[in-house]
Amino acid sequence: MESVDAVLGDRLTDRARVRSDVHPGSGLTKTFFVNWSKLPASQMRRYRPAATVVFLGTNDGSPLATAGGDVVPCCGEQWIAEYAHRVRRAMKTYLRRRAGAVIWMNVPAAKDPRRKPSNDAVNAGVARAVAGLHRAAVLDMAALFTPGGVYREYMTDRGVRVRVRQADGVHLSTAGASIAVRAVLAQLERFGVV
Q1: Answer CATH for 2-190 from 1.10.10.10, 3.40.220.10, 3.40.640.10, 3.40.50.1110
Q2: Residues above pLDDT 90, as percent of the chain
């Protein structure tokens, strides 16, 4: 999210105020950096945004405790269902009882194939979470940057070959963030936010 928020702020300078609240290394499956069960409500009280953009999940994959008290490992059906529940709860908070909008970006495939099971489970949970929510959207960064689940460091954008991933094989480069932000801006316009 770090590069996406900077590009988004630059692109919206004359149209909206962008407040960045990035938490590197955090995720819905970990509470030692940030407790995502509490963070969305805190952000809503502090900022009261017209729209919230979330790019989260590359660090998820840890076991999750279900409402019944079971601890389930990633990345089967029970884990996906619990992850979807957590994402949906966050989305509903960001929607501010329909006074807001939320755009959640799913995660593109990473260079390291060991991340595939957790990335796929995260994306399945996010897709499930958004169902039926008004003014909530999931932007498919996986299809945009890694069509068919195939990692790529470079892609052609507007006729020019650009590096879209950082050297870590996970995060977007500045050029990649620019491409992602075009999709975010298009969704913000569909929501009538900008």
Answers
A1: 3.40.50.1110
A2: 86
User: Is the sign of the CA dihedral 157, 180, 140, 107 positive or negative?
Assistant: positive
pLDDT digits (tens, 9 = 90+) for 7-26: 999 999 999 999 999 988 89
Q: pTM of the full predicted structure?
A: 0.94
Q: What is the mean pLDDT of residues 133-159?
A: 97
**What element of type H or E holds 176?**
helix 174-190
Distance in angstroms (rounded) separating the CA atoms of residues 134 and 15: 23
Task: Break the chain down into helix, strand, coil percent, rounded to 5.
Answer: 40, 15, 45
Q: Where are the domains of the chain?
A: 2-190
| C-alpha span between 33 and 167 (Å, rounded) | 23
Q: How far apart are CA 191 and CA 120, in angstroms?
A: 27
- Distance CA(107)–CA(140), nearest Å, equals 8
Distance between start and end Cα atoms, the chain:
20
Question: What tokens does 4 get?
Answer: 């996406």
Contact 57, 126 (CB under 8 A): yes
For the beta carbon of residue 158, count every other beta carbon within 10 angstroms: 7
Residue 2's pLDDT band, with cuts at 50, 70 and 90, is confident
